[in-house]
Structure formats: structure tokens, C-alpha cells
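We emphasize that the prediction below concerns an isolated chain of 499 residues; any contacts that depend on oligomerization or on bound cofactors are therefore not represented. The input was used exactly as deposited, without trimming of termini.
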Amino acid sequence: MRPKQIWDTLSHLFTLDGEEGPERAPAPSASEHGPADEDGPATVFPENDYPEKLLQLHHQMIGQQLYQYSLARFLVVAGIVGGTLFARYAVGVENLDVSGLLTLAFCLLVYNLAVFAFVRRYRDMVITPATRRLLVGVMNATILLDYGFLTVTLWLAGGTQSPFKVFYIFHVILACFLLPKRMAYAHAVLGYLMFAGLVAGEWVGWIGAHYPVGAVASLARIQGRYAVTVLAAQAVGVAVTLYFVVGLTQRLRRGEAELLRANEEIRRFSEMQRNYLHLAIHDVKAPVGAAQTFLNNLEEGLAEPLGPMQAAMVGGAQRRLSGLSQLLRDFEVLAALDTVELDRQEHVLHAAEMVRNVVRDNQDLAQMHHHELRAEIPGDLPPIPGIERLLSECVSNLLTNAIKYTPDGGKITVRAVLRGSWIRFEVQDNGIGIEPADQKRLFRDFVRIRRKDTGLPAREGSGLGLSIVRRIAEMHGGRAGVQSELNKGSTFFIELPLL
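Result of the prediction step, given as a C-alpha cell string:
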């Protein structure tokens, strides 16, 4: 069985659509949850039936949302003060209640300072259920108080004729995004009732009117028809806003829930596949190692001297087992790259020492092929962040490839070069080179370039080596590449960011 077939077989065992996976509940039909969307059927969640992880995500975000909301309120205070002074002294608006608006801005500032001091401690902390209930209460109270401040501001700045009544719609949108659907509806109704109370108060003369000259179209008290028209227009605006914004937020939350469920399912199956792969590798490595030891003993004549035919058969078996050992090693590295704990293993490492160790470890292999192997490493290389065993695997993989695919007696150079805020590790050889068309697919999984005109013996391999190099480089925020000219040699490299 070829390496790709082995990998596909292992992967198929734990695919999301595989027959061996756990049973999955059928998607709800349109008849159960209403009509399907134009883009296909969608799962509809009741108000309090979101997945647990989604609820946890929203709960953890509420502290940050309150903190950002309080920061925005400081901008509102600045806007009231700046707008009042600009309208009165720059534009020349008369009869503007400057003292009333500045007093209101001061009260809003004091209130927001208290809210800011309270919520800032919760912006980055883990939210418990009790804390969440407290913050939801704070969120409801602040939105309700903001409606009150907005109503008073509107009254002082022209009442129902003020152009700033559009900010009621803004608060409706804000409540829709920050709160569940029912709470958003409740706040929209309360905000509309406050606006309706302002309109009614002006209409019947219960509250004094403030009509700044130049800020409103008429200085006369509003009439009944105007009041009814304004209330109807505001009701339509609030209703349409609720319909579209609540629908949008519900759709976003359903999509987020589906993504979280899919991610959790993928994570679970990926973990199962990785664990199975580790188990399979562990179970296969032991008999392969035992068989290699047995064949080594036969090859060395510990039982009895081997004849030419027997020696050839043992040598062939050794080569195949060696290829299988390399395949298992590649699978181990691939499984390690899928481990979520890799970030914890990252630390600052000395690049020069790492490269020298790789060159020293491969010196004997190079001498077997009579290669001239040298390292060109500057003495002032800065440290780099990374996982040393994986980066060593990268450089070692490139170096062993150069040794294998360079005719005996070749020259191989390992370099570390600084390029601005990047460091480049490269392995240069004067081997067989690679055709331009083949260079584009070298770093894909299970790709092996086969040429019959090289004069080199056939090389066994999994076709995963360079794919592993690319993945490790990308995992460290870098890239892998090759520069090659046919029959003249190649330079393989990885580039990584510095600290």
C-alpha cells in the first residue's frame, strides 16, 4: 500500500460523513421551524436554546461590550458640550438653553464615570453566571437611562421638531445588537413611549417648549395633526428598524451557532483521528524495529554467513523497512503539527546553534556519499521564536534531500542569512536540479518527482517531507520555497520572522 493510500485510509476512518461516525440528528425541516431561507434550509433556535458554547461566548463578551459602550458615552458627552457651544457661539442659534444642556452633559458624565469604573474590571475577566446576570442588569439599566437622557436632550434642543430625534433609532439598533430579542423589543417600546410622552407633553402644554431660533423650523406650539404625524412616522421607523435589525442579529447568531457546532465537531473528529494515528504509529513501530534488528543480525552474519542471493534479499527488505520507518516518522511529525498545544512549546532559540547541530548530525551521511558539506553561519545571528525540534526537522529534511539527490562527490552548503526582519535558512547543492514545472508542486502532500536520466539510484520516500517543511514554516509565520536550475543544482529555503 502506498503512503498516500495509507493516509487516505486513516483519514477516511474519521471523516465527518463517514459511515462509522456517530449518528447525527437530521436537520429540522421547514415544516418544523418555518419556511426555509432563499440560500437553503436554516436551523432556527428558540430564544433560549442556543448552543452552550455560543451562550458562553456571548456571556464572556458582555463585559467588553459594556466597557466599549461606556467609552462611546464619553464621546456623547463631548458631542453635547461641543455641539451646544458651536451652535450658540459659532452658528448663532438663539434661545438655546446652554446652561441646561451643559448641566445635562455634566450629569451624563458623572453617571458614566460611575458606570465606567464599575464595568472596566469585567472587560477581560472570566464571566460567571452570577456575574453575567449582574452585567445584563447593568446593560438594561444603562440603555434605559440613556433613553431618558436622550429624551431630555431632545426636549432642550427643540423637542419634537429637533433633528436629533433620529437618535432614538440609533438606540433601538444598539439594543438589538447588545441584548436578546425580547429585551430589544422591550427597550424599543420604552424608548417610543418616552418619545410619545414628549410629543404629548408639548401638544397639550404639560411641559415647557424649547424652540431654539435657527435649530427648528417653527416657533409655534405643535398642533394635533403634526403630533400624530410625528408619532406615526417614529413608530414606523422604530418598527422597520426592529424588523430588519432583529432579523439580521438573529441570523448572525444562528450562523455563529452553526459555525461553533461545526468547529466543535471538526475538533472532536480531528482529535479522534490524531489519537488513532498515534496509536497506529505506536503499534507499527515496535514490529518494524524488531524486524530491522533481526535483518541487521542476519546481514552481519550472526546466525551464519549469507550467500549473495540471500544478502540481496535481506538488503532489499532493509531498504523497504527503512522507507516504512521514514513514513512513520513523517506521520508522527504531521500528527504533532495538528496538536493544539504547540503554542505552549514555543520559546526563544538560538538559530546558529540549531543549524550547526543539524549539520553535525548529518556529516556522516554526507561523507558516505563523499560530499563536501559546509555551514556558513554568521556569528551575530539574533534569537528567533519557535519550536526547536520542528525547525530542526525542517533544516534536516532539506539537508538530507540535498545529500540524497546530489551525485556522489557533490558540494552542499547550509546557510543562515539575515534579510531585514526575517531570517532565511537555505540548503544549496550542485545536484540534479528540478524542472520549473515540477517546482510549483514540490511542497504538496505525497508529491515525488521521478526522473530516469539522473544516474542516481531510485530513492524510497513518502512524498511528505517537503510538505512537512512548508507546514512547519507557515506555522511559524514564515514560508518555504525553492530556486533550482535543471542539472545545475537547487537551493531550498525557509524564511522565518525575527522577534
